[in-house]
Amino acid sequence: MNGCVRSDLCPMRMIVAGNWKMNKDSAEATALIAALKVLSVPEGVEVIVAPAFPFLAAAVDQLAGSSILVAAQDCHEKSHGAYTGAVSVPMLKSVGVKACIVGHSERRQYFGETDKVVGLKIAALLEHGLTPIYCCGESQEERVGGRHFEVVTNQLKTALGALNSEQLSRVVIAYEPVWAIGTGLTATSEQAQEMHAHIRELLSAHGSEVAKRVPILYGGSCKPDNAAELFANRDVNGGLIGGASLDAPQFGELIRLAGQA
Ligand code: 13P
After folding, report:
1. Which one from 76, 104, 196, 198 is the annotated catalytic residue?
2. 32 CA to middle of ligand 1, Å?
3. Full set of structural domains in the chain with CATH
4. Alpha-carbon distance 56 to 62, whole Å?
5. Taking a C-beta distance cutoff of 8 angstroms, is the pair 203, 211 a contact?
6. 212-230, pLDDT tens digit by residue?
7. Residue 182 binned pLDDT confidence (cut-offs 50, 70, 90)
8. Mean pLDDT to the nearest integer, 82-104
9. Which pTM does this prediction carry?
């Protein structure tokens, strides 16, 4: 892992993670990875890409020798068995995948994923040494109703509550307000910072070391024109990027901006 370049208060490193969602076919994925592989990654920045399942093994092979890590977008909580269509953590590990996004709001919305199930997925990932990238965040209705802190608190308690401090220190959290995902609406720098600080405060119940170690990424229409402001916040340790991760120049610019934060 790269060292932190920000300050003593910085939890550790900046992470720029690209969630490709259900985009790119084989040739397109290969071309995008090739373009990412030649980007320069500043000291203190960790880059992760999450292509769709069929392209994970090829992405790992293609990125051999580079510092970019490959993540999956989901996993099953069981290690094997009669779960048609599912992909287990040991399967991901066997092809060199190092991390996995869990609890994304699109999984919650379209696939009925709950924090209870997400908690089991996180436990499975940690058991096999993969990094969970746990997504949380409130809906527009919850934000307008002033319940955003309560909602995120409950999400974290349900999904992460059973973890001990050592396990928790291996999790990456992504705060993704649902109303900002794919909408062009971004949380303001202040809205992001205050929620990230709130999450950090919740983590501190497990000790200041845990609170310092866990990176908290921002996700939701994060683009080159708003990233510098978001990344400059003390408790924002990078971004989980959707749309802008599908374009190498834009993703490269986000990596560069993370290096300056
Ligand atoms: P956009 O950057 O397209 O808003 O997506 C964010 C996201 O959902 C990343 O997981």
Report:
1. 104
2. 17
3. 14-260 (3.20.20.70)
4. 10
5. yes
6. 999 999 999 999 999 999 9
7. confident
8. 98
9. 0.94
